[in-house]
Design a protein that fits this description.
The complex is a heterodimer of chains A (about 425) and B (about 300).
Chain A: H1 2-22, E1 38-45, H2 48-56, H3 59-64, E2 68-75, H4 77-89, E3 97-101, H5 102-109, H6 133-138, E4 149-161, H7 162-168, H8 178-188, E5 217-218, E6 221-222, H9 226-242, H10 253-260, E7 266-270, H11 273-281, E8 288-291, E9 300-307, H12 317-329, H13 331-341, E10 344-345, H14 368-378, H15 388-404, H16 409-424
Helix pairs in contact in A: 2-13, 8-9, 9-15, 9-16, 15-16
Chain B: H1 2-10, H2 14-40, E1 43-44, E2 54-55, H3 59-67, H4 71-101, H5 108-120, H6 123-133, H7 140-148, H8 160-188, H9 192-200, H10 205-232, H11 237-242, H12 259-268, H13 273-302
Helix pairs in contact in B: 2-13, 3-13, 4-8, 4-10, 4-12, 5-8, 8-10, 10-13, 12-13
The chains are: A alpha+beta (about 425), B mainly alpha (about 300).
Chain lengths: ~425, ~300
Amino acid sequence: MKATKFLATLALAGLALGAMSCAKKAEVVQALDPNTPYEVTIGVYGDLEKAYVAVFNSPDFKAKFPKVTFKFQTSDFGGHHNRLTTVLAANERANDIEALEVGFIAQFVESGGLTDLNTAPFNARQATKDIVKFALANATTTKDSLIAMPVDIAPAVLFYREDLARNAGVTMDNLPSWDAYIDAMKKLADTKNGVFAIEHPAAVQAIPLNGGKGGWLKDNKPLEPKEKFLGALELVRKVKAAGVDGDLGAWSGPWSQAYIDGKIATIVNGAWFGGTLRTWLSPEPGKWRVAYLPGKMMASLGGTYLAIPATTPADRKPVAWEIIKYLATSPSAQLITFREIDAFPALTSVYKDPVMDEDVTFYGGQKVRRIFADVALNIPENKVSEFDNVILSIWNGAVSEVVNGTLSPEQAYETALTKVKATIY
Amino acid sequence: MQTIIRKSRKQGWYPYLFVSPFFILFCVFGLYPILYSIFTSFFDWKLIGTSAPRFVGLGNYTNVLTQDPFFWKALLNTVILLVTGSLLQHFIAIPLAIMINSKTVKGKEFFKTSFFLPYITSTVSVVIIFGVLFDTNYGIVNWLIGFVSDAAKIRWLQESFGIKVVLSVVLNWKYIGWNMVIYLAGLQAIPYELYEAAMIDGASTLRKHISITIPQLLPIIFFGVALSIIGGMQIFEEPFILTGGYEQLGGHQNSGLTAAYYLMFTAFKAYRLGKGSAIAWLIFLVILTLNGVNRYVTKKLEG
């Protein structure tokens, strides 16, 4: 009897706690007081801290925010997002500002937990007119709330080894189609000597899907239009059939060694990958070049957003917003971040800056930034949804089936569609 | 007498005070989450966000059992790995323990330490290293196979069968030492007189082990198998790391997707806490059933 009462009390306590955790407090956010000193906490991943420290040490920033200091909480990519998820799930206080990679944006867009920046006193709409539209669309809910501000983006391009292309007698610039790319890859590859045209057939699968960032649901129907998704799987099949890939899993030991040894001729990736090549995989200048994707396809493969968690105290939100606004809309901050870590600006006004027309030594003097900027301006808008992660995991299964030849693209598509429907409906 | 009663009354609450830290911690970090997960399993409950949980009754359970395209596959994978990874260990650990327990073996401590070492090695490191060993193009396993066969390289980590083989190898390698130590402790408790009597009767070594060692070890085997079932049904880290995490969902054809892996994906990647809780309780029921079978078989064997 006592045990029953105890368990009943415990269950009630659980209910109460659950209800409390779901309760939403009404809050009034005041405008920023410029005379108050603040220590703003920022949660970031990877090398973002390096870039932001450089921004915060710049004379322009110091003149604008003399009384603001910072405390960083930096983790690796996965650790950062796991921490943020845990803290938000517990409805606990996170850092004043939290960074989010575009792949994680979908999780938060419709679920809440982050402050709507389109409301007063933030009024983000006034500040976002020069931000690339596709990135804003990714962070905007169906009710037109902006839950995070894009600060950097990753326009997708084709990186290729100029020396290998020259030796093979192929031109990688302005390839008219994916078929032309596959033909070029056949000439580039020398598989007997361990030279591969591309790391893995799956490396191209996300490109026709705008990098897999959003667009998985169209009018609430998954994997539509069918032709787009089927086209992506067909592309994977063709690349695999060409026999030019190294069958290398991205970021594995053999994968990095292949780049270090100069055994990979091309890669389709976001602009940020240039930084990876320059600082780690292939530091010698002059070997790599950049071209538009085949058929001048426009896609995004990454990007960073800054958000204010809903649990940030109301009196700290204004300063958090001002810092986010500075990082996203100040040309100085955007260019410093670009210089420091190759994170391409989300602010379109800096695309007119002379730095975008500079020759880049690493790419043999090529004006690659102009290509990045052009792609950035033309990336199509896609809506993200709370199901994106689930659909992406199922989609990767379909790609694996095509790569392994266990299913045709059509069969893989239908299988994936059935699984997605059974999972999300 | 009165003094003793008065004294014991005065000290009456001390024992409770001394044991209370465990019970407080258990209630907060053990019992409460367990009960709370039953509660959440009846709701459509998002891990993140401000939307209120919606009561769905047994909806999560019926969804998992009748609609979900991954649960049964994950459960089947888990049972296969339970047999080839977790239970197979016992057929290796028992002979190994018998060998090390033999009086003729020198350097027992060295062998015990060596076999136990994988158990205390970081799972992440172990799985990454096994991933390199079984790499299609650069792995030492395919390189060695190349000496005896001209057949095409085995794509261990990209094919369904290969993924299960590698996972089984990792699980056996990591946990055989642990089981061996348990059996070694059991063997040392068997009276040596029994073996002496058998020796006088002219029993062979094999007969001695079949007629003395195994029957005497049955309670330990039950314990070891029970632990293997509990652990085996909750395998997560090994397939998660080996097959590429949540984005790959167990690799090709979800071959490495285990029940615990899918539970973690549902709750912490798809953020469906209610459905995740339902999966957790279904796994618990499977563990309970399998251990019931284990108990029944052991009882039968004990006669």
